[in-house]
Amino acid sequence: MPPAPTDSLTPPIGIDPTAPAPARRGGTPWRQRLRETGPIAGLVLLCIAGTLLNPDFATWDNAMNVLTRTAFIGIIAVGMSFVIISGGIDLSVGSMAALIAGCMILVMNALAPHIGSPVTAVLLGMAVALVLGASFGLAHGLLITKGRIEPFIVTLGTLGIFRAYLTYFANGGAITLDGTLSDVYSPVYYASWLGIPVPIWVFAAMALAGAFLLNRTRYGRYVQAIGSNEQVARYSAVAVDRVKILTYVLLGCCVAVATLLYVPRLGSASPTTGLLWELEAIAAVIVGGTALKGGEGRILGTVIGAVLLSVISNLLNLTSIISVYLNAAVQGFVIIIVAFLQRGRR
Amino acid sequence: MDRRLFSAIALAACALCSTASFADTKPVMGVSVPAATHGWTGGVVYWANRTKAELEKQYPGMKVFVKTAGSATEQANQIQDLQTVNKIDTLVILPFESAPLTKPVAQVKGKGVFVTVVDRGLTDPGAQDAYVAGDNPGFGKVAAEYMAKAMGGKGNLVILRGIPTVIDNQRVDAFNEVMKANPGIKVLDAKHGNWNRDDAFKVMQDYLTRFKQIDAVWASDDDMAVGVQKAIEQAKRSDVKLVVGGAGSKDYIKKVMDGDKIVSADVTYAPSMIADAMKMTAEARASGKPMAASTIIPSVLVTKDNAAKYYFPDSPH
Fold this sequence. Notes:
- The complex is a heterodimer.
- In chain A, the strands form two sheets. In chain A, strands 1-4 form a two-stranded antiparallel ribbon. In chain A, strands 2-3 form a two-stranded antiparallel ribbon.
- By secondary structure, chain A is mainly α.
- Chain A has helices at about 5-10, 30-55, 60-85, 95-115, 120-145, 150-170, 180-185, 185-190, 200-215, 220-230, 230-235, 240-265, 275-285, 300-320, 325-340; strands spanning about 175, 190-195, 195, 270.
- Chain A is globular, with a radius of gyration of 21 Å.
- Chain A starts with a helix and ends in a 5-residue tail after the last helix.
- By secondary structure, chain B is of the alpha/beta class.
- Chain B has two domains: about 25-135 and about 270-300, 3-Layer(aba) Sandwich (Rossmann fold); about 135-265, Response regulator (Rossmann fold).
- In chain B, about 50% of the residues lie in helices and about 20% in strands.
- Chain B has helices at about 1-25, 40-60, 70-85, 100-110, 135-150, 165-180, 195-210, 220-235, 250-255, 275-285, and strands at about 30-35, 65-70, 90-95, 115-120, 130-135, 155-160, 185-190, 215-220, 240-245, 265, 295, 300.
- In chain B, strand 6 (about 155-160), helix 6 and strand 7 (about 185-190) form a beta-alpha-beta unit.
- The interface of A and B includes residues 69, 171 and 320 of A.
């Protein structure tokens, strides 16, 4: 169907992939600067407060603990950034992580006796996880683009489906990795390289790759263009459906990678695995300065957002000045304050 | 064609009559429990189904319907359905939450259904005929007494709490009550691990960063104990000599049974209480004798000596 004449006359604002980001209308320079430094300023303030409250906060070991535990949410949030920037959303990531973890453990437990080498079994399990993550993402993408269902609804549906299947496989209990496999696999979470735990390296690599993909490739610019104005992107011959499907596949792979790091930590998956991860990942993306309506965002911001969220709970655990019943409130206040600092144009 | 239709209707009518008369004489029990969303509720569902089979064998003609619900609202609808569709005359219910289910249960009871409430008491005791529950204060007390003794009355201790609920408060209050009588033991802090392995792992990591000497951990739940032990292992800390979980999951009972150095005891809060409640109710209904208004199933200390009695390898919990 040919586009309506008025639409074709609309200048394609913000979709020229080679032009630098257009100046933000109505945003004064200081505000824009605050916008970009808001999350990092929040993080720095929080860290100063933390050090004053408890000197143990500023130790190397604690920093490594916090960054390691951020890795799961952080890696998922990197993938989530792409989905949100393209104007989509995925509510199922927590359940997806749980189901992938469960399937992966079941596969490894089943294969180990037949293969003999536990290392091969673990590697096969990891491959299964990645394939599952990519296929779940592909299913989401197809339902959303070809099936033309709202991403909120598709992923709300799979949120329930994934967790229910995990609960079913686990019989309501926990799926646990067998002893020898667990020993072989545990270095993936617990080992360090150059004094820095493996999950932090993986997190850093994923974040760098994500930032490169978003800012330095044509694909990344298409993602931003679609989130900015899908119609205009479509008329500019961007393969909108394909780009969108790929964002969900990418997120599925990120969830799988996060799961690869998660499983060796406790060696088990239960119906509480990954509970509310979707909200934490979305919060990290938004706190990091990505617009929920899509169109623009920064991977570095997402990383800072994810670290910020886990620093808050770390700090609350290291001190007892606030009633434990108010922990969630503190996190809520910080999210709102940081979002306020980096609020953009209306 | 007509004849076939007629005979089908006649057959259906017959079937209806026979089930109706059947329901009048034989007890029909509805069992409503929360869906298996974590280890303990998984155990409840397992025991409910297992007991259903036992009861139907033991009392020929008795029908038992086991239903699980994902939320309080769903459970309220479910017991209505059990009453109107399945025509139950006996209800055994483990309420999702006390307050929202009090009215729906009272309604069912008003229609002549015998109601046994399990674990979480309703806000209006008039809505139930019998009450069967675990012993939450006892759960904290038994753990505290064992730990105080094992620690020789002195040392540093940290607590991981569950999800903020009445149950959790009762347990922790009773635990602290015992610790007050042991001034040599210092309770360093008590934070919520939400009966969740991952949350417990994080809370324990931060305890280990914050406190240089921790002698014992009351994880107050076997799922949380898993996270606690992983965190200790990762930090390579050898100061923690004792980790006590709770609720008697098969993995932790096994550890106690095998004489684990760190996990030397567990405290029961058995999901099988649903089985006890179903059996007691069935017996009272079959024999016509009244059932005790309130039955408390004590929380028992499990040590190496008696662990075998509490080990159920088939249970998912």
